[in-house]
Amino acid sequence: MLQQIIDRRLSGKNKSIGNRERFLRRHKDQIREAVRRAVDGRGIRDMERGEEVHIPKKDLSEPVFGHGEGGTREVVRPGNRDHVKGDRVPKPQGGQGQGQGSQASDSGEGEDDFVFHLSKEEFMQVFFEDLALPNLARTTLAETPEWKSHRAGFTSDGTPTNLHVVRSMRGALGRRIALGMGKRRELHELEERLALLLRELPEHPEHKPLIEDTEARIARLKGRIEAIPFLDPIDLRFRSRVKVPVPTTRAVMFCLMDVSGSMDESRKDLAKRFFILLYLFLTRHYEKIDVVFIRHHTQAQEVDEQNFFHATETGGTVVSSALVLMEQIIRERYSPSEWNIYGAQASDGDNWHHDSGRCRELLTDKILPLCRYFAYVQVAEAEQNLWEEYVKLADEVPHFAMRKAVEVNQIYPVFRDLFKKEGAAT
């Protein structure tokens, strides 16, 4: 029996999607490395696009069979002064020829790389393919009302553009029938009575006053029926649209960073890379994300992204000021019942000695009960009092994590360690 299989999978207008997926799988390592480098020059919010990925042409080459020179041939070599007929010329060593354009020319121009555009979805899929929100912090996503317009039948009030003509005329017809039904029934009876009186008039002349009265009543009824308006304002019907709440998921990401004199540009760059990774990761799980930047030295301040990463300060460090401001902003603008709250803190670990204990208390009592997850990254190797206090907290609270990253190449492994899927290899 002949069997036929019909593939009804939707591939949209992109009929070559299968080839593209095979290409992405084949060059996965090069693409992953290109994506990793792509975040270096971007801002945290500048992630709503894909990336141009360059793959060296040599990495796209495939093995082929080549045919060397063989057989008996007579070749005339122009300008030959070393050989005569009958001499044996050895084969070139290496076993392969040199294709045209395989090396740089005298002008210094080499072969171009293969360039293709990686969409935002592919970009994020490659970057976070084996990561997940920690199961210990996974809870039901908050549902917050966003309003969307939906049809809700018809109403008697509205704008002319929303007028439903057919519905209005149908209502007008029903109204005219309802208001005129009794009058038409009475008119029909009077007309039958008048016809009977007119037939009996020769035999009964005394019916003439009755005929005149009947004719007058018929005239009045016809006038009343004609007075019923063809279209009345009460007949008008307008399309009605109402706003209904639509559940959506949204999150807020708090970025806390020490900007005191001990935090140089290289350490700020490490922090920026971690914040970018976290923001990118959250966009895969939430439809709407707000980002709040809090910088601190002895005092904390909410700033924009430019000032957060590039403004410099001098003086000491009081980390608790940033945590106090974060808790205040949450209470004022981001209700935990409506927002999924995430915190990311970056510091070199330097803090006023008596303030580190207060930081741990603020996190334990104020911040962590409101957060889905809180990650602390120290961009310095030395373990100072802040690190020691946070270590105590990490042992007690499952959705608090802390790591060190002192080199650029450590940021990505640290991030993957924080958000790896359960059961995945480290």
Structural notes for this entry:
With 426 residues, the protein is of the alpha/beta class. Among the domains are: 160-239; 249-419, von Willebrand factor, type A domain (Rossmann fold), CATH 3.40.50.410. It is 39% helix and 17% strand. The protein contains 12 helices and 10 strands. It has helices at residues 17-26, 28-38, 57-60, 120-127, 165-200, 208-226, 265-283, 305-310, 320-333, 353-367, 385-396, 408-419; strands at 51-55, 114-118, 144-155, 238-248, 250-258, 288-296, 300-303, 340-347, 373-378, 400-404. Strands 7-6-5-8-9-10 form a 6-stranded mixed β-sheet, with helices on both faces. Strand 5 (250-258), helix 7 (265-283) and strand 6 (288-296) form a beta-alpha-beta unit. Helix 7 runs parallel beside helix 12 (408-419), helix 9 (320-333) runs parallel beside helix 10 (353-367) and helix 10 packs parallel to helix 11 (385-396). The longest helix is centred in the middle third of the chain and has 36 residues, at 165-200. It starts with 16 loop residues before the first helix and ends in a 7-residue tail after the last helix. Pfam families: DUF444. This is UPF0229 protein QRD43_02395.
Give a short synopsis of this structure.
39% of the residues lie in helices and 17% in strands. The protein is an alpha/beta fold and 426 residues long.
